[in-house]
Amino acid sequence: MARELHIEGFNSLTPDVKGDVLQTVQRALRVLSLVAEHPRGLTVRQISAALDLNISTCYHLLNTLVVSGYLDRPPHQQIYLLGPQIPYLNNAFVQGVAAQETASQMEGISWPPGWSASWLVGQLRAMMYRLTEQTQEPSYLSCWRFGEVLLLAIVEAPRAPKVTGLYVGYQGPAHCHALGKVLLAYSDPAFVDRYLDVHPLTSIGPNTIVQRLRFQEELNDIVRQGYSIDKEEFSADTYCIAAPIFAPKGEVVAGLAISFSGEVFAKRVEWLIAQVTRAANYARAELRLAPAYQL
């Protein structure tokens, strides 16, 4: 099996593994992902060193990406930033999600008629803002999309640190964060088995659960208690609490979460659990009264 090289927001085949991919395109995508991690920009030498690329090859890749609009180089500066084509792609992705009615979002599970990912965000965004205001921590909304956990929305908290590598549209491994675990916990066991067969329990953060039996026990505990906790399973000093959001007829359609530091976890974890689970219950009531459901 091909090994993976992980850069935040991007997984690729390692350069020494031959497969049905174009290595030049892989390198260009790695460049884009690296630059995305550094909003203030990077020099060609920084990119070359970080990705172990020949400096001449790096220049060719950067020039091609600049000409195509995927990177930008400000006048009289030696740094590269993301270019104007990136928001275009993001907008197209969001519109694509909005256009997909959710009957095929996950094997064996469909949402109620008239529901879609964008509709769900519109119904619950105000609730997310209230949760962030109450806790002073970032809030997140996720759902299934084609067998992967998709991050639908983020409401940042002004004083809380931003979790590196998370963005609207993120579809990374589900086993290493609270949102993924809560959605897996309330999924059909047969689907979970198939998901874990395709997505190995690889170590992502300091405390990622990598033993399959232990992970399945974790999912059982989540259902028993009604929420999931991620204790540095995604990244260092990042903790997360997530709760399921139920549709009126009882199916889980999304997950709601907040993230915070280890210091905050030690001081007020029980209070935060109460806020997240209460907000998820409130979301269920909101969805029950939503026009799309009443139709």
Can you tag this structure with a few keywords?
alpha+beta, 18% strand, 295 residues, Beta-Lactamase, 10 strands, globular
Q: What is the general shape?
A: globular
* CATH superfamily (homologous) name of the largest domain: GAF domain
Question: Helix count, per DSSP?
Answer: 10
CA-atom Rg in angstroms:
20 Å
Largest sheet: 5 strands, antiparallel
Low-confidence stretches: 1-17, 101-108
CATH class of the largest domain: Alpha Beta
The helix fraction, in percent, is 40-55%
Helix and strand element order: EEHEHHEEHHEEHHHEEEHH
The domain count comes to: 2
**Which CATH architecture of the largest domain?**
2-Layer Sandwich
In terms of DSSP E residues, the strand content is: 15-25%
Terminal CA distance reads: 48 Å
Q: What does the average pLDDT come to?
A: 84
- Strands in their spatial order, largest beta sheet: 7-6-10-9-8
Say what the CATH topology of the largest domain is.
Answer: Beta-Lactamase
Short overview:
The chain has 295 residues and is α+β, with helices and mostly antiparallel strands. It has helices at 23-36, 44-51, 55-68, 85-99, 117-135, 178-185, 189-198, 212-225, 262-288, 291-294; strands at 4-7, 10-13, 42-43, 71-72, 79-82, 139-145, 148-155, 228-231, 239-246, 252-260.
